[in-house]
TrEMBL record:
The chain crosses the membrane at residues 12-30, 50-71, 140-163, 175-193. The keyword Membrane applies. It is a multi-pass membrane protein. It comes from the Bacteria. Keywords: Cell membrane, Membrane, Transmembrane, Transmembrane helix. It is found in: Cell membrane. PANTHER family: ALKALINE PHOSPHATASE LIKE PROTEIN (PTHR42709), UNDECAPRENYL PHOSPHATE TRANSPORTER A (PTHR42709:SF6). The keyword Ribonucleoprotein does not apply. It comes from Deinococcus aetherius. This is Alkaline phosphatase. Residues 30-160 form the VTT domain.
């Protein structure tokens, strides 16, 4: 994949970075940990401007959040609450739980989007709850842009400094992203089991 990413950027330049970062948010198997360090390396060779690299990476990342945001917005809280009340018992999930989660996101959503955009493995998924909780689009875009800008700057800067060894960035971050995903899955399983146990105690 590294060769494909590099070839696309060589042929399309800044537009290639923009396109790749949009795709990275829609199809997570295309990692920003490879795209941005590669672009940073190109900047270190003088083929690109590092500030334009960061700008295009940030813009692509922000644009890439919109499809999942609008999917969440279209699905909506009320529809999800109705679904949970009807079928959620199989997952020990109720409409009340959905509303609690939505209230939590209303209180902490800005921070979740800002910092979550810098966490591999979940950065693209945050757009769904943001849309479902109807976070105002300007606010969502603002915090997405800040978080994405910091992430793009860090990755491009690492690639710029590492030069030909830019691919080491993915080697370091890849295992971390898998650990984060595993923690999220384990936390979800623990939550599910606790709810099931609590419901069994009440019965």
């Amino acid at each position: 994949m590294a060769e494909w990413v590099q070839n696309l950027m060589d042929s399309m330049g800044y537009l290639g970075i923009l396109l790749l970062m949009i795709l990275e948010n829609v199809f997570p198997p295309i990692p920003s940990e490879l795209i941005m360090p590669s672009a940073g390396f190109a900047a270190s060779r003088g083929d690109m401007n590092i500030f334009m690299v960061v700008a295009m990476g940030t813009l692509g990342s922000v644009l890439g959040t919109l499809p999942l945001y609008y999917v969440g917005r279209a699905f909506g809280e009320e529809r999800l609450v109705a679904w949970a009340d009807k079928y959620g018992k199989w997952l020990t999930l109720s409409g009340k739980d959905i509303r609690k989660a939505d209230d939590w996101f209303d209180r902490h959503g800005a921070g979740a989007v800002l910092f979550g955009r810098m966490v591999p493995g979940i950065r693209s998924l945050l757009s769904l709850p943001a849309g479902m909780s109807e976070m105002p689009l300007p606010r969502f875009l603002l915090y997405s842009a800040i978080g994405s800008g910091l992430w793009a700057s860090a990755l491009a800067g690492a690639g710029y400094l590492l030069g030909e060894n830019y691919d080491r960035v993915e080697g370091y971050i890849g295992p971390a992203s898998r650990i984060i995903l595993a923690v999220v899955v384990v936390a979800a399983v623990v939550w599910f089991l606790r709810r099931k146990r609590a419901q069994g105690a009440k019965a």
